[in-house]
Automatic annotation (TrEMBL):
Cofactor(s) required, per the database record: Mg(2+)
Main location: cytoplasm
Organism annotation: Christiangramia sediminicola
UniProt protein name: ATP-dependent 6-phosphofructokinase
Family of this protein: Belongs to the phosphofructokinase type A (PFKA) family. ATP-dependent PFK group I subfamily. Prokaryotic clade 'B1' sub-subfamily.
Gene of this entry: pfkA
Length: 328
């Protein structure tokens, strides 16, 4: 029988995402509800290695449900990739009498957590928090919805100036290897073209499409480009290529960058973070370990960390077809 869980650690790791604070709050309050101690570790795995922690009670997390960023801060720890680093973290957790950890982050976080749990026998549960939405086992990750709204708002503004000047804009959005942000924000903002890593449409097709738009009487256009897209080397080179081949276009580039990671979480992300985190604590108290919680068809589910890491969350390719129809 597994050891009873009396003291749970929580941390946030990897790229921060809006709603991580709502997740921390829900972990802490659920622990309080079940009379379980909760300890926060700063800067993800690095704080576990350095033993930087804080005891958290229900009042420690007041007024953070609406805040962007993460009160526990985040990091991508290189030291945790080493056996020695992980051993230091395990020693600190044992000294602090931590029975289990909740890891809020993306695939890098879960990979680290899985190795750590195997090596040191400390149960972990992953809560998916990343704006990229690229995690298998959940239809939505914490922060994705807020990031989409941030991007759509920014593109709406770009469209104003694009149409005032009859310009073509290339807008680069985040999503290291995944096109979720580009695809959905592109449809939401009415982009003429959407370029994502999952579907290489080719440069010729892009030129054809832009020419068609012009012939159809469009005077300005928006092309949303996912940062992971491979069609051009980068968005600036892509814009140069188009300018060279279609010189009548007055093209500009906007890279939205890290504004996509900030801001107040949307209601959707707050509710998602709350539901996932309550489930994560309950699973640990129930003796479960090495799982990731997720939301599938609006239900709270869980899968093994192994499945979450090996599986692929596929984009809905029908959205590309819809985008093509709507940009006629
Ligand atoms: O994983 C989330 C993410 O925002 C990616 O979309 C992006 O490529 C990356 O993080 C940027 O990371 P950093 O903040 O370390 O530059």
């Amino acid at each position: 029988m597994s050891k009873k869980v009396r003291r749970i650690g929580v941390m946030t790791s990897g790229g921060d995402s809006p709603g991580m604070n709502a997740a921390i709050r829900a972990v802490v309050r659920t622990c309080a509800y079940y009379h379980t101690d909760c300890v926060g570790f700063y800067r993800g795995f690095q704080g576990m290695i350095n033993g930087e922690s804080i005891n958290l009670n229900a009042r420690s997390v007041r007024n953070i449900v609406n805040q962007g960023g993460t009160i526990l801060q985040s990091a991508r720890s290189k030291e945790f990739l080493t056996e020695e680093g992980r051993a230091k973290a395990a020693k600190n957790l044992k000294d602090a009498e931590i029975d289990a950890m909740i890891l809020i982050g993306g695939d890098g976080t879960f990979r680290g957590g899985q190795v750590f749990s195997k090596e040191h026998g400390i149960p972990v549960i992953g809560v998916p928090g990343t704006i990229d939405n690229d995690i298998y086992g959940t239809h939505y990750t914490i922060g994705y919805d807020t990031a989409l709204n941030t991007v759509v708002e920014a593109i709406d503004k770009i469209r104003d100036t694009a149409s005032s000047h009859n310009r073509l804009f290339f807008v680069e959005v985040m999503g290291r290897d995944a096109g979720f942000i580009a695809l959905n924000s592109g449809i939401g903002a009415g982009a003429e073209e959407i370029l994502i890593p999952e579907e290489d449409l080719g440069l010729e097709r892009l030129l054809d499409s832009l020419e068609r738009s012009r012939r159809a009487g469009k005077t300005s256009s928006i092309v949303v480009v996912s940062e992971g897209d491979k069609i051009g080397k980068n968005v600036f080179e892509l814009a140069d290529y188009v300018k060279k081949h279609l010189p009548y276009y007055d093209a500009r580039v906007t890279v939205l960058g890290h504004i996509q990671r900030g801001g107040r979480p949307s209601c959707f992300d707050r509710v998602l973070a709350s539901r996932l985190s309550v489930k994560a604590v309950e699973l640990l108290l129930d003796g479960k370990k090495d799982l990731m919680v997720g939301m599938l068809n609006n239900e709270m589910e869980s899968c093994s960390l192994d499945q979450a890491l090996k599986g692929k969350h596929n984009i809905n390719k029908d959205l590309l077809r819809i985008s093509e129809i709507l940009s006629t």
